[in-house]
Specification:
Layout lengths: L1 H18 L3 H12 L7 H30 L5 H33 L5 H19 L4 H25 L5 H17 L3 H18 L7 H29 L7
Length: 248
């Protein structure tokens, strides 16, 4: 009973921190909950993911802003040096929090026997290795690239075997996996092929959904459409600039 009350208290605090957009507090509450070593409910699982997504998201945005400043040709050498130093500080913070998420997943969560939960955590593994790959270099970069690819690929196979084509978790996985192929591996045709196949199957299956997840699925399908439209346009422009016509 005491454990149940403690879990309930942590969940309630996490929801309050979420409403207040206090992501560092929310991360702390959810980390404590995960470390209790019990399988998370769907609601708890989503709180855990949302806490770290927003916490890391603010740092990723900061990193992109500072990296952009560093690349500006009209800034002084001193400002460039300061920008580089600050960017490295943010990278260390990003590494720490991404590694914390990955460790929590590997130690407490991915051992679940629930297939949907396992897919969810494998996808999270892929996401956080992808975040690390955005600024990783040399041998460390090779490791995180391959780790992200493996986590996404394993989750993708399980999703295709166990989830319907319009299931929001399967669609969200393909959305992020295709972004990984396009932006990180620069495997543009593979990204487009993956998104196109997912759209075709997902739209056919969408009307079979009867619960609130139908809205979530429709939103992700639209994001996939937007990405595919953007990527196709970029590939056509690149091909035209080289004097070739794009083939898809």
């Amino acid at each position: 009973m005491a454990d149940q009350n403690k879990r309930r208290n942590l969940v309630e605090r996490s929801r309050l921190a979420e409403e207040a957009e206090r992501w560092d507090d929310m991360v702390g509450f959810m980390k404590t909950l995960v470390q209790q070593g019990r399988d998370l409910s769907v609601d708890e699982r989503n709180l855990f993911a949302n806490a770290y997504k927003n916490y890391v998201g603010s740092k990723r945005l900061s990193w992109r802003v500072v990296a952009s400043i560093e690349q500006q040709i009209d800034i002084s050498n001193r400002k460039r040096d300061l920008s580089r130093e600050y960017k490295l500080k943010i990278e260390e913070e990003l590494k720490a929090v991404c590694q914390e998420v990955l460790q929590l997943i590997e130690t407490f969560l991915i051992i679940t026997i629930d297939i949907e939960n396992k897919i969810f955590y494998m996808k999270m593994n892929g996401d956080y290795y992808r975040y690390l790959s955005e600024f990783a270099a040399d041998s460390a970069g090779d490791h995180v690239f391959e780790s992200a690819k493996m986590a996404y690929a394993q989750a993708y196979e399980l999703a295709r075997e166990n989830l319907t084509p319009a299931h929001p978790l399967r669609l969200g996985l393909v959305l992020n996996f295709s972004v990984f192929h396009y932006e990180i591996f620069e495997s543009h045709e593979m990204a487009c092929e993956m998104a196109r196949e997912c759209l075709e199957l997902g739209e056919e299956d969408l009307n079979n959904l009867r619960d609130v997840s139908k809205n979530d699925s429709a939103l992700i399908l639209q994001l996939l459409k937007d990405n595919l439209r953007l990527w196709t346009s970029e590939m056509e422009n690149q091909a035209a600039s080289r004097g070739f016509s794009a083939r898809f």
